[in-house]
Queue: 2 jobs
Job 1
Amino acid sequence: MQADLLNSAHRTRTAHLLQQHAPLVHCMTNDVVQTFTANVLLALGASPAMVIDAGEAAQFSAIASALLVNVGTLTQPRAQAMRAAVDAANRAGTPWTLDPVAVGALSLRSEFCRELVHLHPAAIRGNASEIMALAGASSGGRGVDSTDTAAAALPAAQWLARESGAVVAVSGEVDYITDGQQTLAVHGGSPLMTRVVGTGCALSAVVAACCALPGERLHNVAAACAMMKHAGAQAAEGRGPGSFIPAFVDALHAQHMEVNA
Amino acid sequence: MQADLLNSAHRTRTAHLLQQHAPLVHCMTNDVVQTFTANVLLALGASPAMVIDAGEAAQFSAIASALLVNVGTLTQPRAQAMRAAVDAANRAGTPWTLDPVAVGALSLRSEFCRELVHLHPAAIRGNASEIMALAGASSGGRGVDSTDTAAAALPAAQWLARESGAVVAVSGEVDYITDGQQTLAVHGGSPLMTRVVGTGCALSAVVAACCALPGERLHNVAAACAMMKHAGAQAAEGRGPGSFIPAFVDALHAQHMEVNA
Amino acid sequence: MQADLLNSAHRTRTAHLLQQHAPLVHCMTNDVVQTFTANVLLALGASPAMVIDAGEAAQFSAIASALLVNVGTLTQPRAQAMRAAVDAANRAGTPWTLDPVAVGALSLRSEFCRELVHLHPAAIRGNASEIMALAGASSGGRGVDSTDTAAAALPAAQWLARESGAVVAVSGEVDYITDGQQTLAVHGGSPLMTRVVGTGCALSAVVAACCALPGERLHNVAAACAMMKHAGAQAAEGRGPGSFIPAFVDALHAQHMEVNA
């Protein structure tokens, strides 16, 4: 496995670009993580907006800077609205990101995610079990938890990147980000990030935001992973999962504010 | 532009009334802000309840003290349920408040909000872009962000107040509250309030709660704005957006507790 | 009324079992409390997953360790999905827990909950007004607030336990847990727990998780109540409701970590 470390200057540069461009991120995400996702994007200087009616979602993804599709609490009507949004995003040139939450064992989302893979996502972000299941390399993890390491999922991620044209990010103890040719690794973070709901889903939203930035997409997506891991390591210091949450959002905001300093 | 400052005694008096009456606020609001909205109302001594099925919403708005209709994540079934709730509220004499989130560019909510304006809301609370779009004075902001100042929206707010019979609150760096004749201004708050999701939506819920209190509605709505700005200024002191959230709820609760002291 | 105090060793033992078994809890719960519920379960070492499409919910409840059905924001499609999940859970032997939020005055949930009572729940957790309404002993409280004490609801709880076969937990200033024969009492907690949304709903999720553990169900459910009251008392010390929330999750996590020490 060949993976280069992301140069830490990329994280700082991407934080700066996020503030400068303030991308408007259309989030079609699951019920559990909406507030946290919005606050994470706001802390980094991006603008979240959740629009879910099929007609409105199509209107909005055409004017948004980026679109996020997260299937965590998928239903048939939501799948329809997501299809409409992805279609409008593709026609308008809005980059969109897929988070295939718990894909594998559950039928509706698994079929839907396999359909979405062929609709030109800019990025795909999942844990190891999700990326392997989406690539057909396994039947998925136990619900939302990954039962595999990110390194084990790297071949599947690389295959998926080539198949879909997306930058694929596999998050875990180490995050791997690949376009199918080049692969970057991002270290850091904290185990506490897995004891708080929504850190992975919020990362996908930050990935979506970074797909709207100028520059190389592979590096932008890796920088999204690096911003989250950096904040996670800072916030975990001596804290439990409850106090981790506000500290994590503060730490993201500090990266945003450093840009101004 | 003529706007009188709200006398600060009104804020204290309204905090006292909120505790005394503990209004039961039926919140039909968007997916992103439900938890925060509920905790804000609870901190001030009000009782939130979210009931969304059309049949149940009609039953509940008839027995609630107040109803909030927020179109942030509107869908067709939710619009139907909101119609049923507004209709039942009007028949029962329950005052109801409209928060026209992101009205303007998106069709479903824009048509729905224009319909609601004529169904006798007690109050309407929005940012400048939303109030201008609802009054037909502009096509709305960029998603949920306001691109106009509250002062620029004041003529639209005054027109809307006369047209609808509602007290209209335009929130921004300064909040303006008008019944179409008299206009009050509320200063304070913090820029951090715009870096946290749901402060505007939660304000609308507090406005809804205050519409259930005795006394002059214009002053009660302005006091709702003042309670939020007061807590926001206190909570922002030396904090990032993550730690702002619990501090803000604590600061609201402190206003509630001062009443007991 | 005869109620024995829960031996405090049961709380510690159950915290240990939760960590050891890490039950995967399928939460079909209301829109307002999803994030908090997930974070509470994670803090205690359990794994939450929210799956809501009818087809997927049936698939998932068959592989989950436990299922939670909370009717707080019930709609017709959600009731259908919950029916499918309960049916699959019963066929797979997955224990499921009912939280009959605000049952009584509202038609859809009241009929649905009365139907569910006869579908072999492992546990039912509600406040006094909810348990009395579910047992047909009263018409329910004012929305989600209880207007009765837990002690007053004990005869209804005991009857409901015998009628349904479930362990019934009535939470209040004192929690009572009964299987219709034996009754346990759990003291502690803090009034601040009623000024924060979702503590009751999250308790139901912990009850659901504890129904997946080995040992006597009556004691496991009482231990769930005790873990929450213990954390609540610790977190309330000198705090307002905003800062209570992260402190509460930290305090639950501390119970989980003590197990490791």
Note: Chain A touches chain C at residues 30-33, 35-36, 72-76, 102, 105-109, 142-145, 195-198, 239-246 (CB under 8 Å).
Job 2
Amino acid sequence: MRKARNALYAQSGGVTAVINASACGVIETARKFKSKIGKVYAGRNGIIGVLTEDLIDTTKESATAIRALRYTPAGAFGSARYKLKGLEESKAQYERLIEVFKAHDIGYFFYNGGGDSADTCLKVSQLSGTMGYPIVAVHVPKTVDNDLPITDNCPGFGSVAKYTAVSIREAGLDVASMSKTSTKVFVLEAMGRHAGWIAAAAGLACEKPGDAPHIILFPEIPFDEDKFLAKVDATVRQYGYCAIVASEGVKNTDGKFLAEAGTRDAFGHAQLGGVAPVIAQLVKSKLGYKYHWAVPDYLQRAARHLASKVDVEQAYALGRTAVELAVKGEGAVMPTIVRTSSKPYRWKIGVAKLKDVANVEKKMPRDFITDDGFGITPKCRTYLAPLIQGEDYPPYKNGLPQYAQLKNAAVKKKLSTEFKV
Amino acid sequence: MRKARNALYAQSGGVTAVINASACGVIETARKFKSKIGKVYAGRNGIIGVLTEDLIDTTKESATAIRALRYTPAGAFGSARYKLKGLEESKAQYERLIEVFKAHDIGYFFYNGGGDSADTCLKVSQLSGTMGYPIVAVHVPKTVDNDLPITDNCPGFGSVAKYTAVSIREAGLDVASMSKTSTKVFVLEAMGRHAGWIAAAAGLACEKPGDAPHIILFPEIPFDEDKFLAKVDATVRQYGYCAIVASEGVKNTDGKFLAEAGTRDAFGHAQLGGVAPVIAQLVKSKLGYKYHWAVPDYLQRAARHLASKVDVEQAYALGRTAVELAVKGEGAVMPTIVRTSSKPYRWKIGVAKLKDVANVEKKMPRDFITDDGFGITPKCRTYLAPLIQGEDYPPYKNGLPQYAQLKNAAVKKKLSTEFKV
């Protein structure tokens, strides 16, 4: 019988509150298949670590430490924004991958990322044919952007969705209580440069007329200043205050990001990464209302303390399934979430071919947004509501969540060659 | 026997995650003293509601609804930023208060706020002497700023402290995992215009060298650009990234707020309420590091989902004690937190005279900040650590915290006169 081959796991792109739960699923499951999988290595800082032969030996981590990944946000092995292009364009990179794979007897590759990494994962799986190196490559989906096709939703999204909905509910109560004499308009910025999924999720906090948020601004809907200001004014007049959630990717009618169109720094440079202050300032200058704004930025996607239980469970299940598929020799695939029922919510794991996943972006359907462009429809609510269900608190010590602290011991290098990334 | 007189409760100033826990303590306790206290009314939007005779009848709320205040953030009856001045300057206001008190047989006044409202509460208690109206006025302390004297700490602070420490721990892990190819410097802005208490609390997240936050910027320490940039650069070189927490009140060496010195909007106005982007931009322009920044604003003080259990318990206990003092006829006082031990943490309730509280601001001691001005000392840690202890989660439904929804029914007006505020 052929000896068990090693596995390589790498995280890619922006991290999430639950990407480590997928890592936990991969590593815990691989440890159960000792006859097929030898050691699980991880790329330090994702694919960068693979290319530079900077691998982490996860066998040095205790079962307790690996278990702790389930409730630890961000990327425990480091992630990278580093896109491999086509096999021709990035030939040197792919050849280097094979070189590293061979040196460490890697038979399984698990790539945990979004759309770009699904494409890379597909290309790696094709290496077995084009470059004569046998490897089973499975993609584990992850993205707060929720923009991967086929899968009903993406791990990481449910938790940032929950964070955003809870935050606007809480901040909305705050503004409501102060509005008589102080702040009347509050703008919360949500991640989402191209799609309004996260901003849409804030809409779940509105359960009856008058609840925050009163207005959601989507990248999908060109920003109509007059209509927006009229709605803000009407909301303040009716409820005494107005709570707004704005996608960072909101664009003017001429297609420019509002965040770039507004403020300039002292040197005259466009002030990037803050659509909330631009909108708040607009309200102030046109309507005169006192404002506050918030930009939670990384806090939203790292907020493991407020993770969705459904999200954690799905992230883990996808990691586990990736290994189960791999040991059956099923490569060039991505396990997916299949929704079988919305009320009550039921889901199971499916499998998609990577060639159907790579380079396809799932947009938010127009019928998820209300006709006036400022809210979510019941259809959208039905889709989103299950994804934020349940709480899954990390353990606390001294008042703070105790997240995994890995050794991240390096695997001894076997290659004499270096690779410049 | 004299018939029980009514009580009036009002919230004042910026709200917190636990001010309603104090309200809960006041109302639940008052309901136990039926022979002494008739109805508990609340000022709608704080003192504004009292002046305009817009009172809320809390007897219309069920025991369950009042109990829910214990885990509901913000001000359930509305708060106000409205400062009464001296008895001479604001004579019309004080006379109006008496008029409303008389009309509704108010014998007890509970004012839940910070330093300014302690002063107002003191003046109200003096009314019995100067204006011949008998009333017992007790101040219930509340402020995220933690700047009231005598009391060891202020309700509201522990929860925002916990939020800030947890947030920088989570975001720090995020940045660490991305730093190889992406963001290297992250700036989290914390509330605190005059004192660095909240930013200091972020330091609790740093439990060993290299943990976030690496740098804290305090309003107490003039911002030294060169020293700061050198520290950022050294941190990035050593750990690969740098996580910074900046008080909104950080000032230049010439005493100007950094937040005002930096960016200008498209109209040339100073862009207020964002020191984090100013600092991030400075790092980028001088050191070239990719940055992200976050301004949680109201999210931090409204984050009941992450409240400190100690904070909730103290907020409730202070509300309860205020009533116990009042029924004994002890007015012109404020119940306080007395720390009897730090390790293990033990506290009890004390009583301060309002004349010793009003208009005194508690500053952060210089020996709570490290010599280099960028961190907290062990002494500071010993003080802060107990205040974020324990979790006290609200109940969730459909993935969202279920906060109190009061009827806030109006008390029938008895006065024919109107009062313009």
Note: Chain B touches chain A through 79 residues (CB under 8 Å).
